[in-house]
Amino acid sequence: MRTRPAGIGNVNADWMGLLPSKLSAMPLKYLAVPGSHDSFTFWVDVHAPVGPDQKTYVKYLVTMFSVLAKKFMVKWSMTQNLTFREQLDAGIRYFDLRVSSKPGEAGNEIYFIHGLFGHKVRDGLLEINSFLCRHKKEVVFLDFNHYYAMDSEHHVYLIEMLQEVFGSKLCSDCAVENITLNYLWEKKYQVIVFYHHPSAQGIPVMWPGNKIPAPWANTTEPNKLIQFLETTLKERKKQGSFHVTQAILTPTVNTVAKGLVWGLRDYLVERNLPIIMSWVQTQRPGVDGVNIITSDFVELTDFANIVIKLNNLLLSESEHKAR
After folding, report:
1. Does 114 participate in catalysis according to the annotation?
2. Which is catalytic among the residues 47, 114, 146, 243?
3. 82-93: buried (b, 16+ CB within 10 Å) or exposed (e) per residue?
4. The pTM is what?
5. Known catalytic membership, residue 37
6. Could you read off the pLDDT of 105-138 as tens digits, one per residue?
7. Candidates 3.20.20.190, 3.20.190.10, 1.25.40.10, 2.60.120.10; correct CATH number of 23-322?
8. How far is 281 from 277, CA to CA, in rounded Å?
């Protein structure tokens, strides 16, 4: 059994339920919500084949290093250390999910994927549902945004799985402006699923991907990332969608080659996190502000706490207006 990383507790396990009434009455699109990037990569299967999602730099590793490739791939495929349960306890409420079948495997089983295969999707969903059953006022965003080696039968299997696991907790698609915590609590909804594929059209509890845009900077440089995030926040749609600020850096083939033995965390993330988190701390939620913010290795800083505390700015704004 995995041991919980030092310093990680359940201090934010009920943060949504503990928000002041002024905030629970606001549309969720105006609140600051912490999320994780490639949320499921806390475990990958080094014994399974390389995933069908493999990118150029993964192919480069496999070609150049053959039998050693997977050892290095683990270092560059993993973007989180915490399990779903640990992320939830820490306050993470948005999950970035990429899924795939295993080519050649009988049946329709679906797995999480990021270069290497992760856990079965069903196991992850059950873990999330178990948390929600114990924390009735907490709400999660599940963003299924990449699919690999999946035909129509696989999509039907996954959509039915989501409905089976979460049942009446699933929030039906509606105007984003109507979604407040008060509304969700009244309806006993705890899960908003975004399904970026035509297979989900016409299914009320599957929200379309265009209601949760997540602009991607695709850079290794923190200053370029911050410039991009500020630009896309200014361009954020006024109506009809949530918004994901991806506060993440993306390795190139050259980055991987130079930092091969160190991996994503040691070579790219840790050294640049202070700059990125300093920017996050200066942000404001609300109209034209941040909404969902995602990070790699959410336990490396006080990430979730920092994002959650941004909501206090909304309280001070409302008090100022009341004077």
Report:
1. yes
2. 114
3. bbbbbbbbbbbb
4. 0.92
5. yes
6. 999 999 999 888 999 999 999 999 999 999 999 9
7. 3.20.20.190
8. 6
